[in-house]
Write a structure and sequence with these properties.
This protein is α/β, with parallel strands linked by helices and 469 residues long. It contains 12 helices and 18 strands. Bound molecules: flavin-adenine dinucleotide.
C-alpha cells in the first residue's frame, strides 16, 4: 500500500498529493492571487468548498450586480469537497422521524424531495457549466450482510413507507437481485435508492470555482481568514467589509475564534485501487456505477471510478483533542489497513490488488447530527454545514438556500426544516474527545458483535435512538 507524505511534491503540485482526485485533476493547482488590501463587497464567503462556491454561484446567477468575494486559506477544493467519496446522494444524517418532530410529516417529506431534486440539479448545473466531473446517476446499493444488517435494512424501508416514500427513495431487494448489481460476499439483501450519482469531487469543485469566476465572483486563494465579525472579515492581507458574511468552513470551523464548539472535525479516510481489469469487474459488477455501502454502523462507502478503479473509504480514524486538524491526520496506517481488509472481505477477488492512493480529510459533525443552514439577520452572518459526511449534494441545496436568505426571497427552500438556528454546542474538552472517540469505539465493537452473533447491537441501537437518527 502506498503512503505518500503530503509534502512529497513541492509548490502547487503538492496539492496533487492530497487525494486520487487531486492527482488526476487535469488542470493546474497554481493558487490564484491572494487578497492584497482592504475590500468592500456585498457578500463575503469564507471557504472555497462546495458550500461557499454554490452560494456564490446561486447569488451571482440570481443577481449579477452583486459584488461577491470568496476567501480561501489554501486553494479551491483543498478541503473535503476535493477529497470525498464522490457520492452525490439524497442522504441526510437526520431521520425523517426526527425532522417530523419539529416540522411535521410534511416538512420531513419536503426535505427528502428537495434533496432528491438536488442530486439531479448538481448534474444539470455541472453539465450547464461544462464541468466534466463524470457525474453518473447509477443509484446507491447498501448491502445487508448478515441478519442484523438485514433487520436494519427492513426497518429503514418500513420507515420510508410510513412517510409515504416509495421504492425510488428506498427499496429492499432480495439477495439475488443485489448480487446481480454488486458481486460482494455474504449478501442477504440490499437497500437501494435511485437518488445517487457517482462523480469526481475535485473536478466538480475546481470546475465550480471557474464557473463562479466567469460570473464575476472574486476568488482569493492562500488567504486565511482570522476573524469573522458582523460586517467584516479579517485576513493578514486586509479587511473585507460586507453586509453579509458566510462561514463555509465545515470541518475547519472549530479553528475560527469563538466557533470551537460548533462542529467537530471528524476524519474519514479513503483508498483507491489501480484500474481493475475487465474480468475483475465482471465479478464485482457495478456496471451502472452505483455507489455502494453496507448496513454496518461505522460508515463505509465506495464507487467505481470513471477510469475503472475502486475508490473506497470509511470512518474509524481518531478524533483529535481540541478539534485539531493537521495534514498528518489524513493518513493513518492502521485505519487504511482496516479499510483494505474490509474491501477484500467485500470482494475477495481483490485479495492481491494494488492500492495506489491513500488519503483522508475532515468533515463537520454538529452535536445533534442535524445539519443546518441559516442567516442571523442581526449580524448578517450566515452559515451552512455539519453535513456529517453527506455534503456533496446537500451543500448545493445549502448554497441556494443561503442565496435565497441573503436576497430576502421566501421560497420553498427557506421553509425546509434544516433552516434554523444551530442550538446545541459540543461539550468542552476533554469531554468532546472522550465522547467522539467513545462513539467510534462503540460502533466498531457493535459491528464486530453483529457479524459474530447475527443479532442487532442494543447499545448501538440505543445510541442512534438518542440522536433520533
Ligand atoms: C474523505 C471524505 C469522504 C467524504 N465522502 C462523501 C461522499 O461520498 N458524499 C457526500 O455527500 N459527502 C462526503 N463527504 C463530506 C463532504 O465532502 C463535505 O460535507 C463537503 O465537501 C463540505 O463542503 P464545504 O464546502 O462545506 O467544506 P470544505 O470542502 O471542507 O471547504 C471548506 C474550505 O474552507 C477553507 N478554510 C478553512 N478555514 C479557513 C479560513 N480560516 N480562512 C479561509 N478559508 C478557510 C478550507 O481550506 C476549505 O477549502 C466526505 C468527506 C470526506 C473528508
Amino acid at each position: 500500500m502506498t503512503t505518500r507524505a503530503v509534502a512529497a511534491r513541492t509548490g502547487a503540485d503538492a496539492y496533487r498529493d492530497l487525494s486520487l482526485w487531486h492527482e488526476q485533476y487535469p488542470g493546474s493547482w497554481e493558487p490564484r492571487a491572494a487578497l492584497s488590501g482592504d475590500l468592500s463587497v456585498d457578500v463575503a464567503v469564507v471557504g472555497a468548498g462546495y458550500t461557499g462556491l454554490w452560494t456564490a454561484y446561486a447569488l451571482a446567477k440570481t443577481d449579477p450586480s452583486l459584488r461577491i468575494a470568496v476567501l480561501e486559506r489554501e486553494v479551491a477544493g483543498f478541503g473535503a469537497s476535493g477529497r470525498n467519496g464522490g457520492w452525490c446522494s439524497a442522504l441526510f444524517p437526520t431521520s425523517w422521524a426526527r425532522l417530523a418532530k419539529d416540522s411535521g410529516r410534511q416538512g420531513a417529506v419536503a426535505m427528502q424531495r428537495a434533496l432528491e431534486g438536488t442530486v439531479r440539479a448538481v448534474g444539470a448545473d455541472a453539465a450547464a457549466e461544462g464541468i466534466a466531473c463524470s457525474y453518473t446517476r447509477g443509484g446507491m446499493v447498501s448491502l445487508a450482510r448478515g441478519p442484523a444488517q438485514l433487520a436494519r435494512a427492513r426497518a429503514g424501508v418500513q420507515q420510508a413507507r410510513a412517510f409515504g416514500l416509495g421504492p425510488d427513495t428506498l427499496d429492499l431487494v432480495p439477495g439475488e437481485q443485489a448480487r446481480h448489481r454488486v458481486g460482494a460476499s455474504r449478501i442477504e439483501g440490499a437497500v437501494t435508492t435511485e437518488h445517487c450519482a457517482a462523480l469526481d469531487p475535485a473536478r466538480l469543485v475546481r470546475g465550480l470555482a471557474q464557473a463562479v469566476e466567469r460570473r464575476g465572483v472574486a476568488l482569493y486563494e492562500r488567504t486565511p481568514v482570522m476573524r469573522v465579525l458582523p460586517g467584516r472579515v479579517e485576513t493578514p492581507y486586509g479587511t473585507v467589509r460586507a453586509e453579509h458574511v458566510l462561514v463555509a468552513t465545515e470541518g475547519y470551523t472549530a479553528q475560527l475564534p469563538g466557533r470551537r464548539r460548533e462542529l467537530a472535525p471528524v476524519y474519514s479516510l479513503m483508498l483507491a485501487t489501480a484500474p481493475l481489469p475487465d474480468e475483475v469487474w465482471a465479478q464485482i459488477g457495478l456496471a451502472d456505477r452505483a455507489t455502494f455501502s453496507d448496513e454496518r454502523h461505522l460508515t463505509i462507502y465506495g464507487q467505481r471510478t470513471a477510469d475503472g478503479r475502486l475508490a473506497f473509504g470509511g470512518r474509524g480514524a481518531p478524533y483529535h483533542l481540541g478539534s485539531r486538524v493537521r495534514p498528518e491526520y489524513d493518513r493513518v496506517e492502521r485505519v487504511h489497513a482496516a479499510l483494505r481488509a474490509t474491501l477484500v472481505d467485500l470482494f475477495p477477488v481483490l485479495r492481491d490488488v494494488e492500492v495506489t492512493h491513500t488519503w483522508g480529510g475532515n468533515l463537520g459533525v454538529p452535536r445533534d447530527w442535524f445539519p443546518s443552514v441559516g442567516l442571523d439577520r442581526s449580524t448578517g452572518i450566515a452559515w451552512a454545514g455539519g453535513y456529517v459526511g453527506d455534503g456533496v449534494a446537500t451543500s448545493h441545496l445549502a448554497g441556494h438556500t443561503i442565496a435565497d436568505l441573503v436576497l430576502g426571497h421566501d421560497t420553498p427552500r427557506t421553509a425546509l426544516p434544516w433552516v434554523r438556528v444551530r442550538t446545541k454546542r459540543w461539550e468542552p474538552e476533554p469531554l468532546r474527545w472522550i465522547g467522539v472517540n467513545a462513539v467510534t469505539a462503540l460502533m466498531t465493537r457493535a459491528d464486530r458483535t453483529e457479524a459474530r452473533t447475527g443479532r442487532p447491537s442494543r447499545l448501538a441501537a440505543a445510541f442512534w435512538r438518542t440522536l433520533g437518527s
